[in-house]
Amino acid sequence: MRKTSSADRVALFGGKFDPPHLGHQLTLFLCLEKFGMDEVWVIPSAAHAFGYTMSPFELRLTMCRLLAAPWKGRRRVKVLADEQALPQRPVYTIDLVRHLREEYGPRDYHLIIGEDNWKARADWKEFDELSQLAKPLVIGRGGGSNLQLALPDISSTAIRTAVAQNAPWEHLVPAAIPEFVKDKGLYWPKN
Q1: Predicted confidence band at 1 (pLDDT cuts at 50, 70, 90)?
Q2: What is the mean pLDDT of residues 119-138?
Q3: Alpha carbons 166 and 89: distance in angstroms, whole number
Q4: Is 167 contained in some domain?
Q5: Contacts by 122-125 with C-beta closer than 8 Å and gap 24+?
Q6: How many percent of the chain have pLDDT more than 70?
Q7: Whole-prediction pTM value?
Q8: I need a surface site. Which of 18, 166, 172, 182 has the fewest CB within 10 A?
Q9: What distances in angstroms separate CA 169 from CA 12, 54, 103, 114, one per listed residue?
Q10: Cβ atoms 52, 16 nearer than 8 A
Q11: What is the CATH number of the domain that holds 31?
Q12: Residues with Cβ < 8 Å from 17, sequence gap 6 or more?
């Protein structure tokens, strides 16, 4: 078992992060400041359980580190590559959480779930057990949310589309992401 810290309340924030955007960054802030988490662990997907195509893992991992940059040195936001190290593909959230509990020890784990995924929880592998191992923390998005707390309606899909169409998108992502995306040639149509 690896020791990371003595944090008691840990929010697990998994996703494609392709690219990470300001909604993701606001989620980090809310988990730490509003919901009182000691830490948030950002965990990019290695292979998505629902089969979504994603940019290479290492590029998304680097973008997650850029997403977490405002908390650098405070040890409250960690970016983990653990899903990439797991042998099975796809990696289901329940398997990842079991791995994290074994690897980092027992804590008061919470699982950040977007409202759209919350509505689809019946499709998740062993969701009842998962919700016992990591308490769901449901975050809404946009004005149509039924939750008291909803983030701006920003999506990675819309950002990738905007990049491909040469439309404005830089205002939707953390400050260091546009340069990284442009430098790596991400999301532009291939000629």
Answers
A1: low
A2: 93
A3: 34
A4: no
A5: 123/50, 124/49, 124/92, 124/93, 124/94, 125/49, 125/92, 125/93, 125/94, 125/95
A6: 91
A7: 0.90
A8: 166
A9: 27, 19, 38, 22
A10: yes
A11: 3.40.50.620
A12: 24, 42, 44, 45, 60, 63, 64, 67, 156
pLDDT tier, 17 (very low <50, low <70, confident <90, very high otherwise): very high
- Residue that is written with structure tokens 């779930």 in the block: 113
Provide the number of structural domains found in the chain: 1
- 30 occurs within a structural domain: yes
- Whether 91 is in a domain gets the answer yes
Whether the predicted pLDDT of 136 surpasses 70 = yes
CA pair distance 142, 66, nearest whole angstrom: 24
Distance between CA 17 and CA 59 in Å, rounded? 10
Q: Which tokens is 96 given?
A: 């990842």
Helix (H, G, I), strand (E, B) or coil at 43: strand
Using DSSP's 3-state secondary structure scheme, residue 149 falls into coil
Q: Which of 69, 88, 89, 93 is nearest to 79 (CA)?
A: 69
